[in-house]
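Re: the 283-residue chain
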Amino acid sequence: MVVIFWVLGLSLLVQGGLSSMEPAGCRTWRQEGDLVCCEACHSGNRLVRECGPNPKALCTPCENETFTTGSKNKECDMCRQCLDTLYVVKECTISSNTVCGCKKGYTCGNARCTFCVTTCGKGQEPTEERSCRPCPKGTFNNQTHKKCKPWSKKCPKPDDQILAEGNAFSDIKCTNASVITAITVYPVTKPDTSEDPWPMMLPVFIGVFLICFIVLLAWKTYKRRPKEEKEEREFSEKMIIGSPSDEPRTLIAIECSFHEAQQEQGSSSESLVSKDSSELIFP
């Protein structure tokens, strides 16, 4: 069973290879007596003889790794090799050469891409030394790996005016003339920040200072009142309960208390004498 599958696969491969091959022999010819002379070979075939009895024998396909693009070339050319910074884009056939491309960061140096050069970005241009250089003053490049172009001398529209010159990456900038006139006639003014800000800030500072002063004064008054009340209460307690001392306030309080007691005693004695006298006079 394995052998059968192997044979079928090989036959399909051979048929595919044969179907991809170019036809052999002479494609067009002319009759000259008993002979035919080839005017053009099939693609990928080289001319072996100009005339002969059999047109298929006048041309033969190119060998491996060779190709030809002419209809009456007598020799086939060697296929290209993609080396270094080149890579194969399309393999070589008997009727076409190998197509190469450049790896990332490189660009084909010519139309056939036989060599690669460093890719130049915007604002640069390639040189003959296969390097890159910035665009000279007065030129620009807004594409990849292209030559720098000179700035435009005037705007494309007749009513436009040049607003700004170009740079290495872009051409001149243009705008409508009416816009420039409007900007010139009605300029946008900005507030003058050069004035001294102190005259404007002075009332604010004064107001803040007054508020702070009032708050501080109220706080001191509030803190002082409980202290005074406490001192008065302690003084009263000392006067009533406390023992005599050498302090002036204590001595004065004791003396006052003594005089009041004497006055009360005197008044009491007078009342008793008056009572006794009244009892004696009026039995």
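Residues 1-20, 240-248, 250-254, 264-283 have pLDDT under 50 and may be disordered.
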